[in-house]
């Protein structure tokens, strides 16, 4: 008669493999976070450099046209036998801005994913949004939406 036997040497090998996989995962996650932080830092530096070299103007709340579309999207959550369908809110906002400075006209279209009422309220409270532009090249400009709490 054969009995299933417990082999302690296999337990040690399995534990070692589990620890190696866990360490590899943590190292890769740390490296990815470090790389993402480095990219974000470079982008912030480039934006700050552009701001320091450009001319600052403002865009008033009344100069912005808002177009919003909101709906509920069905997504599947879970796996295997434990799946279920949930509805999530989706909000797409298009801001159309026409800014005329001297002889240059900036026609700008900005897409922002945020609940429309919240977006309008935050922009209305700010009232004047910082607009940075290069007078020598009308294709170089930056609108500072950092007050929205999202990447600009």
Outline the fold blueprint.
Layout: H1 8-53, E1 55-60, E2 64-77, E3 84-101, E4 104-112, H2 116-126, E5 128-134, E6 137-143
Antiparallel strand pairs: 1-5, 2-3, 3-4, 5-6
Provide a descriptive summary of the structure in words:
This protein has about 150 residues and is α+β, with helices and mostly antiparallel strands. The protein contains two helices and six strands, in the order αββββαββ. The strands form two sheets. Strands 1-5-6 form a three-stranded antiparallel beta sheet. A three-stranded antiparallel beta sheet has the order 2-3-4, with no helix packed on it. A hairpin with a 6-residue loop joins β2 (about 65-75) and β3 (about 85-100).
Segments where pLDDT lies below 50 for 5+ residues? Answer: none
The proportion of strand residues reads 35-45%
- Measured between the Cα atoms of the first and last residue, the distance is 71 Å
Mean pLDDT: 88
What string gives the helices and strands in order? Answer: HEEEEHEE
User: What would you call the shape?
Assistant: elongated
Radius of gyration: 26 Å
Number of strands: 6
**Strand order of the main beta sheet, please?**
1-5-6
- Structural class computed from helices and strand pairing: alpha+beta
What portion of residues is helical? Answer: 25-40%
Described by strand count, sense and barrel closure, the largest sheet is:
3 strands, antiparallel
Counting H and I runs of at least 4 residues, what is the number of helices?
2
Brief characterization of the structure:
With 152 residues, the chain is of the alpha+beta class.
